[in-house]
């Protein structure tokens, strides 16, 4: 495995490896969710690249940029053991050279970026898709792998790639959960033991929504309330939002009929200072992207 810290060095290394190349973009603090993306890339691609870059542009001023975990040595061990060939690990000056902030190129998201995380974390998706567009330009992968835990991010990236006609396939990969249902996240390390116990409320709430759907409920607001009730009933859990949405546009739904494939429930909730997100399909199977 080679670790490259500059764009020039990465491009030189990339020129020597066989294709197809799969990219797993990360901010490090790797867990089994990231490693499942690597395995998926490994199964399909001759070369697997991973980027490790804690992207300041996607953190708001009151968010956790400075305390975001950065266990680089462990990340590199895990990446190598899981079959990554090339790691791109730039510093901030390499990704955002002087003048970048005032350049004409930040990618401004609309459509599916406007609600939910977009509303609660102003500027977040602009930071995400600007860095993702830049990473895709540097790495030129055939396929880039993203986890479905950040469902809205996945839709926003898909739209950005389609709108800018970037020649890459975006592969969404299933959420990896702890045995008790908690979705894996680099932020789970911030939870106290008590918060960790209460954090299962997110996946329990999603299961309650799904059960209500399976029992015949089709009104989106009734499903939304069934999900929210589990969060509100759990001590120390404060929902930021609960939404039942079209899986592609992220627009709220009114009714879920047979014609709505994979209507999605989205949750963001705070446990003390820790903010977690989770989501699940409520109806039907997963939506198709053909
Ligand atoms: O999902 C993440 O870890 C980040 O948002 C990403 C896609 C690596 C961009 O910084």
Descriptive notes:
It is a single chain. With 290 residues, the chain is an alpha/beta fold. It contains ten helices and nine strands. It has helices at 7-16, 32-44, 72-82, 92-95, 117-120, 124-139, 151-163, 193-198, 201-214, 220-232, and strands at residues 2-4, 21-26, 47-52, 86-88, 143-147, 169-173, 237-245, 264-271, 274-281. The strands form two sheets. Strands 1-4-3-2-5-6 form a six-stranded parallel beta sheet, with helices on both faces. The chain has a three-stranded antiparallel beta sheet with strand order 7-8-9, with helices on one face. It is globular. The model has no long low-confidence stretch (mean pLDDT 93). Bound molecules: pantoate. Pantoate binds next to strand 2 and helix 6. Pantoate (PAF) is lined by residues 25-27, 55, 58, 128, 131-132, 150, 153.
What is the highest CATH level, the class of the largest domain? Alpha Beta
End-to-end Cα distance:
34 Å
Hetero ligands? pantoate
CATH architecture of the largest domain: 3-Layer(aba) Sandwich
Mean pLDDT: 93
Shape: globular
What is the helix fraction of residues, given as a range?
25-40%
Residue share in β-strands? 15-25%
CATH superfamily of the largest domain: HUPs
Order of the strands making up the biggest sheet: 1-4-3-2-5-6
User: How many domain units?
Assistant: 2
Order of helices and strands: EHEHEHEHHHEHEHHHEEE
Rg from alpha-carbon coordinates: 19 Å
- Poorly predicted runs: none
CATH fold descriptor of the largest domain: Rossmann fold
User: What can be said about the biggest beta sheet?
Assistant: 6 strands, parallel
The total strand number stands at: 9
Number of contiguous helices = 10
